[in-house]
Amino acid sequence: MRVKLQDLLRQGEIVLKERKIEQYRSNAYCLLHKHFNVSRAQVLLSQEQDYPEALVLAYWADIRARGERRPLQHLLGSWEFMGLSFIVNPNVLIPRPETEWLVEYVLAHYQGKPVRVLDLCTGSGCIGLSIKKLLPESQVTLVDISDLALEVARENSEALGAAVKIEKWDILQGVPFYLEKERYDLVISNPPYIKTEELPTLQPEVREEPAIALDGGQDGLLYYRALAGEWSALLKPGGEMLVETGEDTGAQVLALFEQHLAACALYPDYAGLPRYVTGRKE
């Protein structure tokens, strides 16, 4: 099929703009790059030439899917987090830029230390695997209830060359017997924190993500009660628990932490919204 990539890009932009897709230009380019592996400069300088028809049709299929509010990350099959490429699909939560703060905090406070890390509700493994990759001396365990999510985490572990331990468990069921005697320097989590009643109001793209990774119960605090209670017992003396919260529940999570941990603090994200809570075991 004889086409000009610049024309394909512009036509894709038009379709996505008509479907009211935010950042329609970058979305169209990402999908073009996925199929044709070209830089923006190459697109601008492109001349009309022959491409396999299947390639052009696959691009348009993705444009249509994005116009129907399928997440861009699902269409691409991967997404960047902490400068690393992570496999993503509808079985895991899409890594968000604000979650990088958790890893940045760990890098700032534990650089050069052989820390033992427990990443709960790991999903794609982006938090724990980033820590392992950027702090190679760390020992990291990933935990999630979903077999499908853990399969993605395993694939990411292999792709990144980051050797970690992976366990299946529902953290709401308390600490399993095989972890009861383990002690960690860091317990870290970005658990489900959306209130159940708010799930139907989320953006269409977010509703494409697994509900099990979003639903934080009636008040959005279900998982934080378990984390601050049973799971904080796995911290070494002086060990630290670090979590991401909803922008409207940070103060409540802080209060839960203060019932079980010391030196608790609430930190803002880069937009100034209260989002991260830390606490230490005395």
Explain what the structure shows.
- With 282 residues, this protein is α/β, with parallel strands linked by helices.
- The chain folds into two domains: 2-68; 79-280, Vaccinia Virus protein VP39 (Rossmann fold).
- It is 38% helix and 20% strand.
- The chain is built from eleven helices and eleven strands.
- It has helices at 5-18, 24-36, 40-44, 53-67, 72-76, 100-110, 126-134, 147-160, 204-207, 222-228, 250-258, and strands at residues 2-3, 49-50, 78-81, 84-87, 116-120, 139-144, 165-168, 184-189, 235-244, 262-268, 274-280.
- The strands form three sheets. The chain has a seven-stranded mixed β-sheet, sandwiched between helices.
- It is elongated.
- It starts with a strand and ends with a strand.
- The model has no long low-confidence stretch (mean pLDDT 97).
Précis, in short:
The chain is α/β, with parallel strands linked by helices and 282 residues long.
> What does the largest sheet look like?
7 strands, mixed
Low-confidence segments, given as residue ranges, are: none
Structural class: alpha/beta
Q: Give the strand order, joined by hyphens, for the main sheet.
A: 7-6-5-8-9-11-10
Which helices and strands, and how do they pair?
Layout: E1 2-3, H1 5-18, H2 24-36, H3 40-44, E2 49-50, H4 53-67, H5 72-76, E3 78-81, E4 84-87, H6 100-110, E5 116-120, H7 126-134, E6 139-144, H8 147-160, E7 165-168, E8 184-189, H9 204-207, H10 222-228, E9 235-244, H11 250-258, E10 262-268, E11 274-280
Parallel strand pairs: 5-6, 5-8, 6-7, 8-9
Antiparallel strand pairs: 1-2, 3-4, 9-11, 10-11
Helix pairs in contact: 1-2, 1-4, 2-4, 6-7
